[in-house]
Design brief:
heterodimer, A: mainly alpha, 0% strand, B: mainly alpha, 7 helices
């Protein structure tokens, strides 16, 4: 895939993230909804004590809810692109 | 549908981790010879897109929301094996960087969405593509396959919840499958829209999956 197309695609992804930050529904997702309905949502527990840098798609230090989500999303975008590329580079046989 | 820690017993988590690890090993071995390194940017972009789309929750019916899972979307383009690896990357980053989905539950989330949901949905897509009449073949197969991937993943999650005694098995299945049958419609629509768009602007992308 040409570099130009990659960049266009990644920009599109950033637009999706922007839209997500602005418009994403705050309703509980399917599992959360079921958990609330059946009464087991209280079981969710932080057992692993994972110190995530951007818990729940927010960045500490950015007050605006939109920018907090959007910036964290862009970091995630970069992380995923890099991780996926690295993993496939390791898997695929070099020609 | 990312299961947080605390919903599943350690035993269920451990078993699903083992199954995921085994499945991913299989997937990795399977694609080793299948793709050239020049496909890597496309794989990266698909992973990025799935991540971005998963951030975008759309409201569904009365008081719940859904988001794209993306398994069949990736599978239609790159085949189910590469798709499961891509989705696993997304789930791992979501868990580690954003605490979206538990760490102990990561194996279950990968098993449900990246593997069983993706492979099952792709398989239905594959079958439908073979048996449906030409005119509606691609669209229907994509839509139904994508829809099914979500329902299947939800079904497996419900089983895990039932085995963990977090909820009665029957009730969990009914609730999870019910809600995700509706959310799956969104998956079907979005997947179909993206595939149709790609077919228009870059049709050669859809033949990466030739012969799978």
């Amino acid at each position: 895939m040409q570099s130009r197309n990659i960049i266009i695609a990644l920009v599109l992804c950033m637009i999706v993230i922007g839209m997500a930050a602005a418009f994403a529904s705050s309703h509980p997702d399917g599992l959360e909804w079921v958990a609330a309905k059946l009464g087991f949502e209280g079981r969710a527990a932080d057992i692993a004590h994972l110190k995530s840098p951007m818990p729940d798609y927010s960045m500490a230090g950015i007050n605006s809810s939109f920018w907090s989500t959007a910036v964290s999303g862009v970091f995630g975008l970069g992380a995923i692109y890099l991780l996926a590329s690295m993993i496939f580079r390791a898997i695929l046989r070099k020609k | 549908m990312h299961i947080p820690d605390g919903f599943l017993t350690l035993k269920v988590s451990a078993v699903s981790c083992a199954l995921s690890a085994g499945s991913l090993t299989f997937a990795v071995r399977n694609i080793k010879e299948k793709f050239e390194q020049k496909m890597i940017p496309l794989m990266g972009v698909l992973a990025a897109f799935v991540f971005a789309a998963q951030m975008f929750n759309f409201p569904v019916a009365g008081g719940t929301s859904g988001h794209l899972m993306g398994g069949v979307l990736c599978a239609v383009i790159l085949g189910p094996m590469a798709a499961s690896i891509i989705l696993s990357c997304v789930l791992i980053v979501q868990c580690l960087l954003f605490q979206d989905g538990g760490l102990i539950a990561l194996g279950a989330n990968i098993l449900n969405m990246a593997i069983v949901g993706t492979w099952g949905g792709w398989f239905l897509f594959f079958i439908l593509k073979k048996i449906l009449p030409e005119k509606i073949r691609m669209q229907t197969a994509v839509f139904v396959g994508a829809w099914f991937s979500v329902v299947l993943a939800a079904f497996l999650a419900a089983i895990e919840l039932g085995v963990s005694k977090t909820a009665p098995m029957g009730t969990a299945i009914t609730a999870m499958v019910g809600v995700h049958a509706v959310i799956g419609i969104g998956e079907g629509i979005i997947t179909l829209l993206v595939i149709s768009f790609l077919k228009k602007v870059k049709p050669e992308l859809l033949s990466c999956n030739q012969g799978t």
